[in-house]
């Protein structure tokens, strides 16, 4: 009778003390992050513009600070498209007939982007961009209340994203901006830096 009682208890003790297979206690590996995945994103950047205005001899212009906001979609690891709005706050023209004139620049454009390395560098995602847009300028100064012009413009350049997390990236870019027709005098090199948020597929 005693043997019948203790035999099952002894079996339970032996089973409890047996080693557990490693596969049963190791956590499942986290899925690898696809840094070049397709999806929507939004970006905000500060901008510093080095003016290269087409102006008359003897006049000068100061460089200018601005801001840029953008939103876009990355189609695949190679290509994407982005809409941007940039505001440059008062390039100052001095000398000649345009002395002490401030030129504000508003630029809305569509930027076609290419990622030449196709995401091979992981978190580091370099890109090239080119696209057309519409530019408005507003001139103010002595004797000028508000003088506005508009015309087509284009931008060409490139930069890179460095992902700090799966969604948040540090962004830097350099673009050449070139106006035409009524805004043909407006030309500048724009250096932009800021942050980009890449939305998760479920967002």
Secondary-structure class: mainly beta
What is the β-strand count? 9
Order of helices and strands: HHEEEEEEEEE
Q: Overall mean pLDDT score?
A: 83
Instruction: Catalogue the unreliable spans.
Output: none
Task: Please describe what this structure looks like.
This protein is mainly β and 203 residues long. The longest helix has 16 residues, at 2-17. An 8-stranded antiparallel beta barrel has the order 1-3-4-5-6-7-8-9. The protein has 2 helices and 9 strands, in the order ααβββββββββ. The N and C termini lie far apart (66 Å). Helices cover 10% and strands 58% of the residues. It has one domain (39-198): Porin (Beta Barrel), CATH 2.40.160. The mean pLDDT is 83. It has helices at 2-17, 22-25; strands at 39-51, 60-61, 64-74, 79-94, 101-114, 124-141, 144-163, 168-179, 187-198.
